[in-house]
Write a structure and sequence with these properties.
alpha/beta
Length: 501
């Protein structure tokens, strides 16, 4: 690079001198102003100087903080979960089809929510293992337990609902959930979570410290955000010191759930020694009265919040439960539709391979088949994939296959030799089975990736494709071999129809 001319260099030097002079002048003026302010502050009362310095420090701190906020990298905020909307849930039920089990259950749950809301009663659910005295506490809370006011249908084990009354006259509806020993663990947890979503509050009965399974169950129930009461039953077995220690322990273990720990006694039979006037003694058994007043007051305090405070929480919990069931139904339908699409395109690939005179080594005999399969699977999983992404996936899958076509054919041919009746398949049939295996592997790899990642993840799909292609199961190969034989026979007997298919 050439140096500037002499006149230009002189001009630059003059500009530098002028800039330096202006900088020095500015510095001198700033110094003079600072000294002037300092002299005035010394002449003023001390408290004025202190206030001035405090204001100056605050100003400088604010400027530094503002600069730091502007220059620091912006943190990515986690997306806020949107509140579930009933209209949206009902639309999903219609899309899935109310005849499906999950959609039918979701529809029934929404109807049950409306029915319970119209009752206007305080609705609690009672949980606990069978050995905790749950049944005895139910009888104490609702003495007339025989008449059931309703049952929850559609479950393998029935949840019964009973009616009682609180001391202030409010009606109390109690849902009795089978204990974990009365139903299978999975069934029991499903029952408990569903009823937890339907109720205003939960009463979990224990007779001592929480066991491992009880703690896990309580944790699962607490996710619904319902008010929780830990009813420490059989509390009259402990002296005051033991009872206080146990209550502290339960509070500590359930603090994150904001559970209340309340000692109760559901009533039991006690033995007493009776002494007669004539000196005879005998042991008699009499019922000990139940002590549930503190539990009733706790339920009353929850009920006193009113429907306006309780219903939004119950509605949100039930909507969350319905959303989970609908998601399960959507996933099941997606899996069924994906499997049907994979089988359909695999059959087309087998037919195309049989019709080809000299099968090539590309990913598919008709490249449009792989593209169409990818588009349909993306549509099934609610994903709008770009053409460029689909083309890139198919291209890379083709490249992966071109390096292993001979291996794939060898795997298919050698594997089929192990099965009587299929070991003598001709080259054309082996090619057809190989192409069927390619489409079956690609379809399942893509469906698995879409279900897990909710996006067209090229690398994950290719990895799953390679694994399924290199280690095919015997059952898959036999199914494809039978399909190839059936397709060949159909083509011989009815060629036009086969070409149409």
């Amino acid at each position: 690079m050439s140096r500037p001319s002499q006149p230009l260099r002189l001009l630059i030097a003059a500009a530098l001198v002028l800039g330096a002079a202006m900088l020095v002048l500015t510095l001198l003026r700033a110094t003079d102003a600072a000294l002037s302010v300092w002299d005035r502050l010394r002449a003023w009362p001390d408290w004025v100087g202190i206030l001035f310095l405090v204001a100056l420090v605050l100003l400088l701190t604010g400027v530094v903080w503002g600069i730091w906020r502007l220059l620091r990298p912006a943190r990515r905020r986690a997306p806020r979960a949107q509140a579930l909307d009933r209209n949206e849930l009902e639309q999903r039920i219609e899309r899935i089809g109310v005849e499906t089990p999950e959609a039918f259950e979701a529809h029934s749950e929404l109807a049950e929510l409306d029915r319970r809301r119209s009752e206007g009663s305080v609705q609690v659910c009672l949980f606990g293992q069978v050995s905790s005295g749950k049944s005895s506490l139910l009888k104490a809370l609702a003495p007339e337990t025989a008449p059931q006011i309703g049952v929850t249908a559609g479950t393998t084990t029935t949840i019964t609902r009973h009616r009682g009354q609180l001391p202030d006259g409010r009606q109390l509806d109690i849902a009795d959930v089978p204990g974990s020993a009365e139903a299978g663990d999975r069934d029991h947890l499903a029952l408990a979570q569903a009823e937890a979503a339907r109720s205003h509050a939960l009463v979990y009965v224990v007779d001592g410290d929480l066991g491992r399974s009880q703690a896990q169950e309580l944790e699962a129930l607490g996710r619904f955000g319902r008010p929780i009461i830990l009813a420490l039953n059989k509390s009259d077995r402990f002296d005051q010191e033991q009872l206080d220690a146990l209550r502290r322990r339960l509070r500590e273990r359930s603090a994150h759930l904001q559970a209340q720990v309340i000692p109760v006694s559901a009533g039991h039979e006690e033995e007493l020694l009776r002494e007669h006037p004539d000196g005879r003694q005998e042991w008699i058994t009499r019922p000990a009265p139940a002590r549930i007043e503190e539990l009733q007051r706790a339920i009353q305090r929850i009920a006193a919040l009113g429907a306006e405070a309780l219903e939004p929480g119950r509605e949100a919990a039930l909507f969350s439960h319905v959303d989970t069931r609908l998601a399960e139904g959507e996933q099941r339908l997606q899996a069924e539709r994906s499997q049907a699409a994979i089988e359909r395109y695999t059959r087309r690939a087998v037919l195309g391979a049989l019709a080809a005179v000299a099968p090539g080594t590309d990913l598919v005999i008709q490249g449009a088949l792989a593209t169409a399969l990818t588009r349909e699977l993306c549509q099934i999983h609610g994903l709008r994939a770009r053409d460029v992404d689909i083309d890139d996936l198919i291209s890379r899958a083709g490249g992966l296959l071109r390096t292993g076509t001979s291996i794939t054919l060898a795997v298919v041919g050698n594997a089929l030799k192990a099965f009587p009746g299929f070991g003598t398949l001709g080259g054309g049939l082996v090619h057809a089975v190989a192409y069927g295996l390619i489409f079956d592997s690609l379809g399942h790899a893509l469906a698995q990736t879409l279900a897990n990642t909710r996006e067209l993840d090229r690398d994950a799909t290719l990895e799953a494709f390679h694994q399924r292609l290199s280690m095919p199961s015997s059952e898959r190969l036999l199914t494809l071999a039978r399909l190839a034989l059936e397709s060949r026979e159909a083509a011989r007997n009815d060629p036009p129809q086969s070409e149409k298919n």
